[in-house]
Amino acid sequence: MAKVSVYNMEGGQVGDIELNDAVFGVEVNEHLVHLAVVNQLANNRQGTQSAKNRSEVSGGGRKPWRQKGTGHARQGSTRSPQWKGGGVVFAPKPRDYSFKMNKKEKQNALKSALTSRVQENKFIVVDSIKLDEIKTKSMVNALNKLNASKALVVMNNIDENVVCSAKNIPNVKTSYFFKDEDGVKTTINVYDILKYDTVVIDKAAVTAIEEVYA
Hints:
The chain is α/β, with parallel strands linked by helices. The protein folds into 2 domains: 2-45 and 98-213, Ribosomal protein L4/L1 (Ribosomal Protein L4, Chain: A, 3-Layer(aba) Sandwich), CATH 3.40.1370; 47-96, no CATH class. Helix content is 33%, strand content 19%. The chain has 7 helices and 7 strands. The chain has helices at residues 21-24, 30-44, 103-119, 136-145, 160-166, 190-195, 203-213, and strands spanning 2-7, 13-19, 123-126, 151-155, 172-180, 183-186, 198-202. A 7-stranded mixed sheet has the order 2-1-3-7-4-5-6, with helices on both faces. It is elongated and about 90 Å long. The model has no long low-confidence stretch (mean pLDDT 92).
């Protein structure tokens, strides 16, 4: 099992924690990681783009000039794609870009992403991520002491003080992972883990992830 240090919000080391290899020490599957990122980006697409083809553009019902004898190329309508104001060839229409991944594929992709962060020493465990008040400066100072300027902050609950304090910090995003009587509540995903250089995670969240995915 990999052993990583546990820090407090002041950047001081307060202990160690052993990470479960079933979650944080798996073989990194780059194909599944890539598939998970593409899946998330595709599912986020609105798919509302729309343009008119030649059958939907108004006008153009009359042949602009006779077939032969004018010196012009033959034309059947002023709404053909080659005309100004004409329809669009293969015009895009509203569609759904989303596709599904198997549950195990999603889990393995998440494990691979977390493992890659541990292997790169970009996985910082904090004994408790919390702030006494909503103050951006306090959050900035805490992240600077942890050497995590571009970070995904994973909490074990929904702490409004932390969320609001980090909201206006560029390159910082808050997320959570916990389990209650209603089941697993989480907003972490493969895309965010890879997008941000460092994962700053609450010790209790590490335990919750191991309980669910180990």
